[in-house]
TrEMBL record:
One cellular component term from this protein's GO annotations in UniProt: phosphopantothenoylcysteine decarboxylase complex
InterPro entries: CoaB-like_sf, CoaBC, DNA/pantothenate-metab_flavo_C, Flavin_trans-like, Flavoprotein
Name this polypeptide is given: Coenzyme A biosynthesis bifunctional protein CoaBC
Family recorded in the similarity comment: In the C-terminal section; belongs to the PPC synthetase family. In the N-terminal section; belongs to the HFCD (homo-oligomeric flavin containing Cys decarboxylase) superfamily.
GO BP terms, alphabetized: coenzyme A biosynthetic process; pantothenate catabolic process
Gene this protein is translated from: coaBC
Region listing for Disordered, in residue ranges: 181-207
Length: 429
């Protein structure tokens, strides 16, 4: 298990870090809590010591013989700061080391994550936005705050994401960095990646080229709904779990992530901007609006192919007579539309990933679909009989526009997301 430094800034959201600490410990990780001195005004040292089972200090002069201000950062597998206040972000950018946490941030050579929490006005201030951009440019991950209730009666962007979402992000980061069996994440792509069907022998792609730091990733998730009347709709069984796994994995690689989510009941993934939609036309508009700024687009959503020509204004009632037949019309082909837009307007180099969920998957049919849609990668997966929608895991074949095929054996949806993002990132690099 990993050695985690949990940094705690001086914000009211520090109480949430107690639950995050519990989640780390219950998963077997070794956790050293390093609060700022003022953070102890919100949650005291005895609480952190009792929950972590480790000593808790804030100053660089405590336990000098062990040189903690250097060793903590040198030996950590992950430094996760939650909450990260505006003041702490500014001090980190300036390279200050006036307490144990900021000194640890300077010596850490492992992934560093900041989960900001502050009032909306502080988050939106140009100084804070400059500091966030600077930290991201240095390769650290700064999580987008959640929108919701803040201190007092205020509501807006600046809320610390829920501990469960932060923990899921931390697990994704650790899995990606270590190539752990739990995540199924390869440190490098297989030597024959993208050429399995042709017997090729590409050189392994180094891990640094699979990073998405500084990149923008757009993901669709869930299943669209087409209303028949105010209470009924045409839909599908998609839960959105695969798209949310992609969002977590992309944030873990340092990307700025937008998730267009249709009709899911999942909590927002930490660090992703979430745009909620209902119908296929809603999703089409949202994806086209976000696409021009995206380096990678991943279309995992199950989009309805058809919608009713007419939506009844009142509930269609069972009155003894059969209702009139429902006339359907085609919905926009979002994936093909994104590919057309890229060809017409750019940006150049954008990588588009599509999905084909089939009850009887055929590689020949999937290759024809890949050509029709105009995307770079097409993920073919079987649905039905416990596979696909709602399942915890699945197996895929990832087809490439250059003719390659990468079989992915059955594994978790988080692990599958890592493989596909590695294939997409390799094409970017």
């Amino acid at each position: 298990m990993a050695r985690v430094i949990l940094g705690v800034g001086a914000g009211i959201a520090a109480y949430k870090a107690c639950e995050l600490l519990r989640l780390f410990k219950e998963s077997g990780h070794s956790v050293r809590v390093v609060p700022t001195p003022d953070a102890l005004r919100f949650v005291g040292e005895p609480t952190w010591s009792a929950l972590s089972g480790e000593p808790v200090t804030t100053g660089v002069w405590d336990g000098v013989s062990d040189v903690p201000h250097v060793k903590l950062g040198q030996t950590a597998d992950l430094v996760f700061v939650a909450p990260a206040t505006a003041d702490l972000l500014a001090r980190a950018v300036a390279g200050m080391s006036d307490d144990l946490l900021t000194a640890t941030l300077l010596t850490a050579r492992c992934p560093v994550v900041y989960a900001p929490a502050m009032h909306t006005e502080m988050w939106e201030h140009p100084a804070t936005q400059h500091n966030v951009a600077t930290l991201r440019a240095r390769g650290t991950i700064v999580v987008e705050p959640a929108v919701g209730r803040l201190t007092g009666k205020d509501t807006g962007k600046g809320r610390l994401p829920e501990p469960e979402a932060l923990f899921a992000l931390a697990q994704a980061i650790l899995g990606y960095r270590t190539g752990s069996a739990d995540s199924g994440t390869p440190a490098t792509l297989p030597a024959d990646h993208g050429n399995a069907s042709r017997g090729g022998n590409h050189a392994p792609v180094p891990e640094e080229s699979l990073s998405l730091a500084g990149r923008t990733v757009l993901i669709s998730a869930g299943g669209t709904r087409e209303e028949l009347d105010p209470v009924r709709f045409l839909g599908n069984w998609s839960t959105g779990r695969q798209g949310y796994a992609f969002a977590r994995a992309a944030v873990a690689r340092g990307a700025v992530v937008t998730l267009v989510a249709a009709n899911t009941e999942l909590p927002d993934p930490a660090g992703a901007k979430v745009v909620r939609v209902v119908s296929a036309r809603d999703m089409d508009a949202a994806m086209l609006a976000e696409a021009p700024g995206a380096d990678v687009i991943v279309m995992t959503a199950a989009v309805a192919d058809f919608r009713p020509v007419v939506r009844a204004e009142a509930k269609i009632k069972k009155d003894g007579a059969l209702p009139p037949p429902i006339e359907l019309t085609e919905n926009p082909d979002i994936l093909a539309g994104l590919s057309r837009r890229r060809a017409e307007r750019g940006p150049a180099g954008q990588v588009i990933v599509g999905f084909a969920a089939e009850t009887d998957p055929s590689l020949d049919a999937a290759r024809s679909k890949l050509a029709r849609k105009g995307c770079d990668l097409l993920v073919l997966n079987r649905v039905g009989d416990g596979e696909g929608f709602g399942a915890a895991d699945n197996e895929w074949v990832v087809l490439a526009a250059d003719g390659g095929a990468t079989p992915v054996p059955r594994r978790s949806k988080d692990a599958l997301a890592e493989v596909v993002l590695s294939l997409a990132a390799a094409r970017l690099s």
